[in-house]
Specification:
This protein has helices spanning about 10-25, 65, 95-110, 190-195, 215-220, 230-235, 340-360, 375-385, 390-395, 415-420, 500-514; strands spanning about 1-10, 30, 110-115, 120-125, 125-130, 135-145, 150, 165, 180-185, 205-210, 240-255, 260-265, 270-275, 280, 285, 300, 305-310, 320-325, 365-370, 400-405, 410-415, 430-435, 470-475, 480-485. It is an alpha/beta fold. Strands 1, 2, 3, 4, 5, 6 and 18 form a 7-stranded mixed sheet that branches. A 7-stranded mixed sheet has the order 8-14-9-10-11-12-13.
Length: about 525
């Protein structure tokens, strides 16, 4: 039997896509190595607290708006199928997410084969052959990999195999009492670990080659989050801990059981220095595991071979009909937007579902008519930017599209911007593309520095210089960019003041349409 789709992985992305395929009655099956969904989250994060927010009390009665503050729920037609119904903790426990995913799989009818580990993927004449650990071969015309970044990232450091690994080290802080500890890595897993050891370890050093970036400044939520940065206080207030900028050159074990580390500083006169530690923990993030693919369909990798390279349709650039969903799709917006996280890739999975429908099932991207008048188009755009959770969560990645041809206008929602740019929507006399964006220099501005001059709130005249999140509308005439309009930023993100938002936008649309 050759299925239309085979999904590998029943994590959040695999379940999201499965639920959409199930609703459409598509031919698919999901293979999951674990005994239930969300296997990754049964182990990670190691200290069991998620950093994805779960804001239950928003004041919103609109479920779509509430999703802007709910970073863990998947999309469904069931208004009760939300993680906010499972816990009211702002940073929920990983076990609550696992429990939620099990219910989501059950209530959406996702067809998942648990306890089925994929050991080899090869190309076949009619698609792909997927061999599982029991010796069974599954066949499908199209393959979607939603396994996440499941493999620990191990940098090429001589002796690094002597270090304890984030994926299996003893997380009990008591075992680190009065010890000198080196944590290799500067991401949230490294600082999550450092914070947990603050009250037991004597000295903690967190080391990595790249400058530390704070999520509240860059707006990339994969950078260091405030919930994990207590350690920085202990460093800057000289409490025996430190963040080291540079590279670990080598690790050697000493006779007393400790470790000698040669470290190359990035910014000091003393470039090389030997440091001694009792324990070393490797917490340098994760990477995609491509080992199951044979040479007939091995996907090209990028970003230090950590992610599969993809087209704007989430398809492998070198293996046709091989698609990716979930955190693997962050290759498309690496450290810029939100495809690496549930609150981003849930919309990416919906976009992939629509792409597959258009390519293989004669199901064009959903659209609805709108009056081909400037005021009507402006009103439709303003209504969407003030309500959409997809545009909000996938800023600078997804956009709404209004196409105008004579007296006919249509509205499409949440299309990947790169997919539009690659011409997949076809030609259009007039196309308006709407998304939410931060200003180009937003990551260089300290948002808490009151001495820095910024564009005033609701300043329509200088909206193009806005730093904070705001709507941007671009007009393309016969595929060529012909004009750009920024809607003024607003403290409450309410872009609906007639004289500030609707009227300037309507005037822009009118001038574009002539």
């Amino acid at each position: 039997m050759v299925r239309d789709y085979l999904i590998i992985g029943a994590g959040p992305a695999g379940l999201q896509l499965a639920a959409l395929l199930e609703r459409e009655g598509r031919d698919y099956v999901v293979l999951e190595r674990g005994s239930g969904p969300g296997t990754f989250f049964t182990q990670y994060p190691r200290h069991r607290q998620l950093i994805s927010i779960n804001k239950v009390n928003t004041g919103y009665t609109d479920a779509e708006l509430a999703l802007r503050m709910d970073w863990n729920s998947l999309l469904s037609d069931d208004p009760e199928l939300l993680l906010t119904r499972y816990t009211d903790e702002y940073f929920p426990r990983a076990d609550d997410l696992v429990r939620y995913l099990a219910d989501y799989a059950d209530r959406t009818g996702a067809r998942v084969r648990y306890g089925t580990e994929v050991v080899r993927v090869s190309r076949a004449e009619d698609g792909f052959d997927v061999l599982d650990d029991s010796g069974r071969t599954w066949r499908a015309r199209r393959l979607v990999v939603a396994t996440g970044v499941s493999r620990l990232n191990v940098p090429p450091i001589p002796g690094i195999e002597l270090a304890e690994r984030y994926d299996d080290f003893d997380t009990d802080p008591a075992s680190f009492t009065n010890q000198r500890v080196l944590i290799v890595g500067k991401g949230n897993s490294a600082f999550e670990t450092a914070d947990s050891l603050l009250h037991k370890a004597a000295v903690i050093h967190v080391a990595g080659p790249h400058s530390l970036k704070m999520a509240w400044k860059t707006h990339f939520v994969g950078h260091l989050r405030a919930v994990n940065n207590n350690f920085l206080d202990s460093y800057q207030l000289k409490s025996q801990n430190a963040v080291l900028d540079g590279t670990v050159e080598s690790v050697e074990k000493e006779d007393d059981g400790g470790y000698r580390v040669v470290f190359r500083y990035a910014r000091t006169v003393e470039r090389l220095r030997e440091l001694r530690y009792d324990r070393i923990i490797l917490a340098a993030g994760f990477r995609f595991d491509a080992s199951v693919f044979d040479e007939s369909c091995r996907p090209a990798l990028v970003i230090d071979d950590r992610f599969p390279e993809q087209s704007s349709a989430f398809e492998s650039v070198n293996v046709p009909d091989l698609y990716f969903a979930g955190t693997l799709t962050q290759q498309r917006d690496f450290k810029k937007s939100t495809n690496g996280f549930i609150h981003g890739f849930r919309y990416g999975a919906r976009a992939l579902h629509r792409i597959l429908g258009a390519r293989y099932h004669d199901a064009p991207w959903p659209e609805h008519p709108v009056a081909a008048e400037p005021d009507a188009i402006a009103d439709a755009v303003v209504a969407r930017v003030n309500r959409s959770s997809g545009l909000w969560q996938q800023f600078a990645f997804l956009g709404d599209v209004v196409e105008v041809d004579g007296d006919r206008a249509t509205y499409r929602e949440e299309v990947p911007l790169a997919y539009i740019a690659d011409g997949h929507l076809g030609p259009a006399a007039h196309r308006f593309v709407v998304d939410l964006e931060y200003g180009p220099d937003h990551d260089h501005v300290d948002p808490f520095d009151a001495t820095v001059e910024r564009v005033a709130e609701n300043d329509a005249e200088h909206a193009m210089d806005s730093t904070y999140l705001h709507p941007v509308v671009r007009h393309y005439r016969d595929g060529v960019l012909a004009g750009t309009h920024h809607l003024a930023e607003n403290l409450e993100n309410d872009w609906d003041i007639p004289a500030v938002h609707q009227q300037p936008l309507s005037a822009f649309v009118k001038s574009c349409l002539g």
